Amino acid sequence: MTNSDKRIVILTENELRKTLSRLTFEIIEKISDLNNVLLVGIPTRGIHLAEVLRQEMFIKTGCNIKTGIIDPTFYRDDQNRVGTRLIEATDIPTSVEKKDIVLVDDVIYTGRTIRAAMDALLTWGRPKSIKLLVMIDRGHRELPIQPDFCGRKVPTSKKETIQLCLKQVDGEEGIFLNNKI
What we know:
By secondary structure, this protein is an alpha/beta fold. It has a single domain (about 20-155), classed as Rossmann fold (3-Layer(aba) Sandwich), CATH 3.40.50. The protein contains five helices and eight strands. The protein has helices spanning about 15-30, 45-60, 80, 110-120, 165-170; strands at about 5-10, 35-40, 65-70, 100-110, 130-135, 150-155, 160-165, 175-180. The protein has a five-stranded parallel β-sheet with strand order 3-2-4-5-6, sandwiched between helices. Helix 4 (about 110-120) links the parallel strand 4 and strand 5. The chain starts with 6 loop residues before the first strand and ends with a strand.
């Protein structure tokens, strides 16, 4: 049995596109001044997801929303447990002061990455609001953090992982559940 045999499709390419469209409309409905929005992606897939959302918002509204990157690695309280990875350069293209920030990540699990991302973001200034968009909410929260915009809730075991694939990065699109061996 190969690794791909253990992969379960959660969202097909078509379902992923529909979900992204729905999430885009939810942002448009919830945030009144789109010119004040900054989409901030969390490495790694959150960066690419923020760009996809930016494009969707432009198609639907004509508004050219700015995107940024926030790498929360050095703000984590659990680095010794999760280890480090190659650091992504934080890039915030505009002041965050009084902005409506939408933090974008592929999966929320314990909430620790989001907490660290908020800590990192607040070193750049004081936004008007911070909202959270995730494609998948796996549960298992250790901190009281909940997404404002969520593609799908998928209860998982701790032995499972979720993988968001985007064409421009992975050559395929969809969301997949993988069992760790």
